[in-house]
Amino acid sequence: MCEVEEDYNGLECKQEKIPVPTLNRKCMKCKEGTAVLIIRVSDAFCRSCFKEYFIHKFRAMLGKNRVIFPQEKVLLAVSGGAASCSMLSQVIEGLSRDAPKKLRFMPGIIYIDDGGACGRSQEERQRSIDQLKSIFTQTGFPYFIVPLEQVFALPTSVLVPVTSDPDLSNPSYKHAVDQYIREEQKLTEEDPASAVTRLSVEDSAYSPEHKLALESLFSSLKTLTAKEDMLHTLRQHLILHVARENSFSKVMMGENCSRLAVKLLSNIALGRGAALASDTGFSDPRFGDVVIVRPMRDYSSKEIAAYCRMFHVPSVFIPGLDTKAQDKASIQRLTETFVTNLQAEFPSTVSTIYRTSEKLHTVKPSESQAAEPASKCLLCVCALDTDVDKASAFHATLVSEQLSQIKLQDVSHDALRCVETQCCGTGGCSSNRFPAHQDLKTLLCYSCRLTIKDMESVDTLPAYIMTEAERRRKRSLMKMEISEYLLEDGD
Ligand SMILES: [Zn+2]
Ligand SMILES: [Zn+2]
C-alpha cells in the first residue's frame, strides 16, 4: 500500500476515536502526569510537559533560524498582549538558564503607546503604562515607552533604507558563538547584567501640539482599514528609530501563528501580496540594518493563552483601534472574524494558512536596486511593486483612476472659478489637495497608495514623510533632466 494512503488511514483511525477529555487522562509524553491541557486532537499534556514543550518551541525557533548572535542587542516589541508578554517570559527564562543552554543576546523592551490614535484619555493611557512599567521593571531589562505622538518628531533618516554590509551583518553564526565563548572566559568576573541595564529609560512625554497633530492625522483617514494600516506603518517607523538610536540590530515581534494567518489573508486583500514574504516570514530584512524577527510564529493563540494562565505570565489588556468595532468595520477585522470562525469549525484552518506563509519567498532585488531609495516604498519600505507590465491589473486600475481624475479636474476648474468669483473666499475649495496626493502616490507601493487614497488631506502626515517625499521627487526630477546623458542599464 502506498504511504500516502497509509497516512490517510492512520488519520482516519485517530479521527474516529477522538478521545473525550476526561479528568484522569494521562499525559501523552511522560505517561505519568495527569493531563491538564489538550493542544491538538490527541495531544494531552501534563503541566510540566506542557511547560517544557512551550519553552522548547521558542528555543527551537531561534536555533533553527540562527539569526540572533551572542551579545547582539535585541529589542522586544511588547504590546501588553498575551503573545508578546509570553515572548518576554521566554526571553527571561532563556537568559536565566545554565551556561550551555543559555540565550546570549542583550534584550531591551519597547512599548508603543498608540492611545492617542485610538481615542483613549490621558488617564486611561497612564494607567496602562503604569501596569506595563511594573512588568518591565521586574525584568531588569532597559525599556522604552514611546507615545505614538513621537512620530511627529522623527527625522527623515527613518525612511532611508540602509543596506548593511553583507560581510558585517552576516558573519558565520558558529564563528560568532565561538568568539563569544572565548571573550566570556576572559571576562567571567564582570557582571553580564550590568551591560544590559546601562541604557537610560526614555520618558513617555509628548507635546500638546503633537497630540493634536496625531488626532487630525487619524481623523483625516476615512476608513478603519486605512487607519489600521497607517497605525501599523507609523508604529514600525517608531520602533525602527528607537532601535537604530540605541544600536539594537534585531527587533522581536510577538506575532503568533493565529495572528500571522489573519495578517496573511488580510494583506492579500489589502493589495500587499508582493510583500507577503517579509510581512509574515520569520525574519524581515526590509530595513537593512535592523532585522525584524518573529519567534512566536509557531504558537497558536490557544497555547499562549493556556501558558499565560498556568504559569501566571502577567499581561495588560489595552484596547486598540478595532476593539469595539463591528465585524465588518475593516478588512483586517473582517478577516480576523472569518479565520476565527473557520478555525472553530475546522481546527486546522490556521495552521494551513500559516504553513503557506512559510513557503513564500520574494525575489531579491539586485545590489544597485536595493541601495536606491526610490525603489522602495516611502511608507512601508518594501520593494516597489508598481513597476509592472502595461498589461497588468495594476495598469488597468491606473487607467480607470486617471479617467475619473479627469472628472475631478473638472471639479477643480469649478473650484478655480469659485476663487475668481470669490464665492466662498477660501481660495481653493479643496482643489489644491489633488496634486499633493498624486506626487506622493508615485513613491508608494500599491497597497500604501490605497491607504493614502483614503485620506482627506496628506498635509496631516508627519513632517519626516513629507520632507523625504519632496527630496525623492526632486531627485527623480533631476534624474529625468539629466537622463539623456546617462548610460542605460544594459549598455
Ligand atoms: Zn507529562
Ligand atoms: Zn508601501
Please give the number of β-strands.
Answer: 8
CATH architecture descriptor of the largest domain: 3-Layer(aba) Sandwich
Uncertain segments of ≥5 residues (pLDDT<50)? 1-19, 165-169, 187-201, 414-434
**Number of structural domains:** 2
Q: What is the CATH fold-level name of the largest domain? A: Rossmann fold
Largest sheet strand order: 5-4-3-6-8-7
What would you call the structural class? alpha/beta
Estimate the mean pLDDT confidence: 80
Classify the beta-strand content into a percent band: 5-15%
Order of helices and strands: HEEHEHEHEHHHHHEHHEEHHHHHHHH
How does the overall form come out from the CA principal axes? Answer: globular
What summary fits the major beta sheet?
A: 6 strands, mixed
Per CATH, the class of the largest domain reads Alpha Beta
Bound ligands, named by name, code or SMILES: zinc ion
| End-to-end distance | 59 Å
**CATH homologous superfamily (4th level) name of the largest domain:** HUPs
The tally of helices reads 19
Gyration radius (Cα, Å) is 25 Å
Classify the helix fraction into a percent range.
40-55%
